[in-house]
Amino acid sequence: MSDKYQGFASSPIGKLLVKNLGLPNPTKLDRYSAGDPLVKGTIVTGGNGRLGESLPGLLDTLGIASTTTQADGEKYKGLVFDATGITTVEGLGDLQEFFTPLMRSLSNCARIVVIGTPPAQVEGSERIAQRALEGFTRSLGKEVGKGGTVQLVYVAEGYEGSVVSTLGFLLSPKSAYVSGQVVRIGAHKEKKATDVADWTQPLAGKVAFVTGASRGIGEEIARVLHRDGATVVGLDVPQAADDLQKVMKEIDGDWLTLDITSSDAAQRIAHHLKEKHGGVDIVVHNAGVTMDKKLANQSPERFGKVLQINLEAPEKITAELLAQKVVNANGRIIGVASIAGIAGNLGQTSYAASKAGVIGFVDSLSDALKDGITINAVAPGFIITQMTAAVPFATREVGQRLNAMSQGGLPVDVAETIAWYASPASTAVNGNVVRVCGQMMLGA
């Protein structure tokens, strides 16, 4: 699917109209391709907190060039500021002193990351100052423009070395459609991150199970996890068997066809993963449906079906895999929520309830999981797929433009976020719900 407006806006007449009429002017986003360096350019680092001195070394682990000084006339691909040392309201002025001189030196699709301390870990003025970082980063995300992104990463004390996988994701084109987000590392007292031998294949030797894998976002999740080294087991309904098998054959994967709402689905999935693969390392609950109607016109059957597929089935499958110990140590459970579950949507009471429930699913397990197993979720906004192509033109245009990037995302943007969660180096990333929405103007 292509964005016809974006193509028009970049044409000679389009540029003229965009400039004179103040129309949205979306920048073509950088996206990662296998074999590319994580960052094509230099990152400027600053700050005097817990990570300040170690940041250059952490970035060097990923092959990312960095500097602590600005050179006249240079363009930079990103900025990282360690704000963990800010303990007073007055200290927030350090943000302005670091960022203001550098903002005009950023190239297109630049990345900005602010690192803070979880407010709950500190008291008094320091808690106030650290909480203020959220307003700063979310506002800056709506200012940076030209395809740039801004994120806040709260790093719990003692987890400074566990930030590498998150920096690699947030500073690279893999996070093209993620902006204005708050990521929490070490919030649930997880084990420290596992070392990764090869950052181009972080999932080598891992088994990933993906539901709804025959097309759209699910297909892209399967392809990205395979690119990162995983053996993928894709699942979809029997009606999608041909498409599912085609995708899995292309990525040397395995497949399973069944209805995840059937009474024995969880047991059959557990048996298949245990017998054929000896367990599973990554579980992605992607399968989902919408049956949109205003509540006044909704039937119990349709309302219940959405909840069954989108929420009840992931809960039951996860419970069975955990009970049978099919999920390996340092495993990953990943749900797919939605911006609808955060901000609501007209005609989607059942869908929004199910997706908000996915967020509750993450909350309910994040403190309970053992052996380094984590649970997180993505919450996509307007993602360009065959499904959204059927949305009426006016509604589709509003959906694509109502974000800081003035464009829709792609299935690969959701997949890349899931691959970051899936990394063995992301053990300290637990209990997060990250929106993949281009910093949509609705919701927090």
From TrEMBL:
<feature type="domain" description="Ketoreductase">
    <location>
        <begin position="206"/>
        <end position="381"/>
    </location>
</feature>
<dbReference type="GO" id="GO:0016616">
    <property type="term" value="F:oxidoreductase activity, acting on the CH-OH group of donors, NAD or NADP as acceptor"/>
</dbReference>
<comment type="similarity">
    <text>Belongs to the short-chain dehydrogenases/reductases (SDR) family.</text>
</comment>
<dbReference type="InterPro" id="IPR057326">
    <property type="entry name" value="KR_dom"/>
</dbReference>
<dbReference type="Pfam" id="PF00106">
    <property type="entry name" value="adh_short"/>
</dbReference>
<dbReference type="InterPro" id="IPR036291">
    <property type="entry name" value="NAD(P)-bd_dom_sf"/>
</dbReference>
<protein>
    <submittedName>
        <fullName>3-oxoacyl-ACP reductase</fullName>
    </submittedName>
</protein>
<dbReference type="InterPro" id="IPR020904">
    <property type="entry name" value="Sc_DH/Rdtase_CS"/>
</dbReference>
<dbReference type="InterPro" id="IPR002347">
    <property type="entry name" value="SDR_fam"/>
</dbReference>
